[in-house]
Amino acid sequence: MTPDPLLTIERFSVVYDVDPPVEAVRDVSLTLARGEILGLAGESGCGKTTLAYGIQRLLKPPAVITSGTAVFHDAGGDDIEINALDEEQMRAFRWDKVSMVFQGAMNALNPVLAIGRQLDDVFTTHRPRMTKAERREECARLLDVVGVGRDRLRSYPHELSGGMRQRVMIAMAMALRPQLMIMDEPTTALDVLVQREILEQISELRHELGFSVIFITHDLPLLLEISDRIAVMKDGRLVEIDTAHRIYSDPQHAYTKRLLGSFPSLTGDRGDFVRGAGDAGHAAGADAAHPATASAATEEDAS
Amino acid sequence: MTILEFKGVTKRYHVRGAGDMLALDDVSFTLTSGQTMALVGQSGSGKSTIAKILTQLERATSGEVLLDGKPIPHRGPGLRRYRQRVRMVFQDPFASLNPYHTIRHHLARPLALDNVVPKDQIEDEVRALLTRVRLDPDATIDRRPHELSGGQRQRVAIARALASRPELLIADEPVSMLDVSIRLGVLNLLADLQRESNLGVLYITHDLATARHFSDQIMVLHHGVVVERGSADDVILNPQHEYTRALRDASPDPDKHFAGPTGEATTRSDAS
Ligand SMILES: Nc1ncnc2c1ncn2[C@@H]1O[C@H](COP(=O)(O)OP(=O)(O)O)[C@@H](O)[C@H]1O
Ligand SMILES: Nc1ncnc2c1ncn2[C@@H]1O[C@H](COP(=O)(O)OP(=O)(O)O)[C@@H](O)[C@H]1O
Ligand SMILES: [Mg+2]
Ligand SMILES: [Mg+2]
User: Fold this and answer.
1) Cys-Cys crosslink for B135: which of A7, A247, A254, B130, Cβ 3.0 to 4.6 Å?
2) For residues B230-243, average pLDDT
3) Is residue B151 lining ligand 2, measured as CB closer than 6 Å?
4) Are B46 and B221 in contact (CB under 8 A)?
C-alpha cells in the first residue's frame, strides 16, 4: 500500500508521568509514504500534538516515550532510527529532514525582528557556508513561494495579517527543504478563503518539491479535501486509518462516524444539527427540547 | 415583537498614519425577535464592527440604530436598559470571564445589577440559568472558569447573556474558538434557547455550513458592504454575488468533493 515509505512508526506510546499518569499516545503504528499528505484528526486532548512531538523527540518531562520506534527512511537511502540519535544529530535532523509548524505558531514570531531577519537566522544557523547574498536571495524566494512576496522581507510581524504570518511560518519550515513537514493546526485561526489558499499552495509545493506532510487538525471536512489518507485518533489510540475517500464514504469505526456526523454539510443535510431548515419565521415553541442537544452536551462534557 | 433596525450605517476608523479607514459602508438590516440572521464574511469584512455598534461599544460615524423605532441611547440608564434587552456573546469565553470569580458570581452579578429577580431568589435563578444551558448546577456553580472545558465556559457565557432576559442576542463567532466536535452542541443549544424565548439572534461567523443550518436569513458582508442577503438556503445553494460564490467554494464540502464523475474524487493536484 505504501511502496515508498518515508516514516515508519511502530507501537509508539507516550505517557505524561504526572499523578495520575496520562497515557497520551497508546501503541500507535503507521507508515507515511513519500509525497503523501496524511491528515491526523481527533478532538482536542486525544494526543495529536504529543504524537507529533514524540516522533521528532521534542517531548520534555514529564513526557516519557514508554515504547515504540520511529524510523525515517532518508532520501539518501539511510534508515534513521530517530530515538537513537544523539542531541547533536537530532538538531541537524530537525529542520533538515523534518520540520514543524507549531500550533499557534503565527503568534510565535519574534515581534522585534523583521521577518526577513528571522528567516535569515535559519540559514545562518543551519547552512553556515551560505554567503550573505545567497541567504538573502533564498529568503526572498521563500517569501515569494508562500505568497507573501519578497517586498515584505523588512516587515515586522505586527504589520502582517494572521494569514501572512502563518505563511511566513510555513516558509521557515520549508527553508531547508525537509522531506517531511508536520503542521499542527496551522490554519485553525484563519478564515476559509485564506485557509484554502494556503492549503492549495502546500499541496502544489509538495508535488513540486516532493515532501510529505502530516497535517493535524480537528477540522474533518477540511482534512477530507486536502489529505490523501486520514488517521483518526481517540484517547491516544489510532482507531482508523484509510484514504480520505473511504473515511468519508465508508467509515468503519463508530467514533469516525460520530466525528463525521458532527459536521453539518454545506450543501447537503444538516447532520446532527437540529434546527429545521424549513421552519423559518415564527418557530417559537415548536419542538423546543431536542434529545440531540442533550446528547451533544453530554458528549462534550465527557471529553 | 422587538425590532432592531440598522439604518444606513457607515463607520470610519482613524488609523494612525494612514488616515481614515472605511469599515462599514451604508449598511442596513433589521433584526426581529424570533428570527435568526447570520452575518458572514471573511475576517476584516466588518462583522465585529456591526456587533460593536449594536451594543454601543462603538458609535456609528453616520446612520442610525433604532430599537422599536427609537434611536438607541448612547449613555446613562437608557443605555443600560438597552443593553439588558440586547446582549452580546463573545468569541472567546476565556477572555470574557473573570478567572478569579466563581460561576455563581458571574451569573449572580447581572441578576443583582439588573434587578431581574428579588435578592433572595438569585441563587435559584443562577441554578435555573445553568440548567437552561444544560450544565449541572451542583457540579458547576462553585467552579472558576479555568476549571471548565471550553464548551462549558461558552455555555456559562451564554447563561450570563441570558440572565437579564434579553430579547435580542448578538453572538460574535460564538463557537469559532471551540473544538469543532463541540461547536454543534453549543449551536444546538443556542437554537433551542432562541426558540424557547423567541429570541432574535444575530449569528456572526465565517463558517457558511453552520450559518446555513442555524439561521433563517444570511447576510454577506464584503469590505464593509452587504453584497448579498436572502433566505439561508438561497444564499448558500444559489449564491448570486461573486464574493458569496468565492466564500462558498472555499468552504470545505466533502459531499461535493467526493461526488466526482468516477466516485473516486478529483485528486488533490486536480483540485488545486
Ligand atoms: N505537560 C503535560 N502534562 C500532563 N498531561 C499533558 C501534558 N501535555 C499534554 N497532556 C495531556 O495529554 C493528552 C494529549 O494532549 P495533546 O497531545 O496536546 O492532544 P491534542 O494535540 O490532540 O489536543 C491530553 O489529555 C493532555 O491533557
Ligand atoms: N479600533 C479600530 N481602529 C482601526 N481600525 C479598526 C478598528 N477596529 C476594526 N478596525 C478595522 O476595521 C475593519 C473591520 O474589522 P472588524 O469589524 O473587526 O472585522 P471582522 O469582525 O469581520 O473580522 C478591519 O480592517 C479592521 O482592521
Ligand atoms: Mg494539539
Ligand atoms: Mg470579528
Assistant:
1) B130
2) 95
3) no
4) yes
Give me the domain span that covers residue B174: 3-241
- Cis status, amide bond into A20, omega within 30 of 0: yes
Q: Classify residue B108: in a domain, yes or no.
A: yes
Which residues in chain A have Cβ-Cβ distances shorter than 8 Å to B233?
A: 277
Provide the residue ranges of all domains of chain A, joining segments of one domain with +: 1-97+179-247, 107-177
Query: Is position B252 within any domain?
Result: no
Under 8 Å between Cβ of B10 and B26: yes
Residue-wise pLDDT for A142-165, tens only, equals: 998 888 899 999 999 888 877 788
Residue contact A264–B268, C-beta within 8 A = no
Q: Is the pLDDT of residue B181 over 70?
A: no
Using a CB-CB distance cutoff of 8 angstroms, which residues of chain B are in contact with residue A221?
A: 209, 252-254
pTM above 0.90, yes or no: no
| Cβ pair B213:A193 closer than 8 A | no
Probe target for ligand 2 pocket from B9, B21, B58, B203, with the most ligand atoms within 8 Å of CB: B21
pLDDT, tens digit, 9 for 90 and up, residues B141-177: 999 988 888 788 888 999 999 999 999 999 998 887 7
Q: How far apart are CA B211 and CA B220, in angstroms?
A: 11
Cβ neighbours of A271 in B, within 8 Å: 184
Q: Which CATH class is domain A1-97+179-247?
A: alpha beta
pLDDT above 90: residue B97: no
Of A204, A248, A288, the CB nearest to B254: A248
CB B7 within 8 A of CB B37: no
Provide the chain B residues 34-73 that lie in CB contact (below 8 A) with chain A: 34-35, 42-44
Distance from CA of A146 to the nearest CA of B (A): 15
Give CA–CA dist B79/A159, Å, rounded.
36
Distance from CA of A192 to the nearest CA of B (A): 6
Mean pLDDT by 10 residues, chain A (303 residues): 83 94 96 94 89 91 95 92 88 85 77 93 92 96 89 88 84 91 78 77 83 88 90 96 94 90 76 43 29 35 37
Residues 6+ apart with CB under 8 A from B131: B137
User: Is residue B267 a part of any domain in this protein?
Assistant: no
Provide the β-strand partners of residue B101.
none
Helix residue spans in chain B (DSSP H): 47-54, 76-85, 93-96, 103-113, 122-132, 137-140, 150-163, 180-197, 208-214, 232-237, 242-250, 254-257, 268-271
CB contacts, 8 Å: B257 with chain A:
224-225
Number of domains chain B contains: 1
CB nearest B180 (choices: A218, A224, A297): A218
Q: How many CB atoms lie within 10 A of CB B93?
A: 25
> Which cell numbers in the block locate residue A168?
511566513
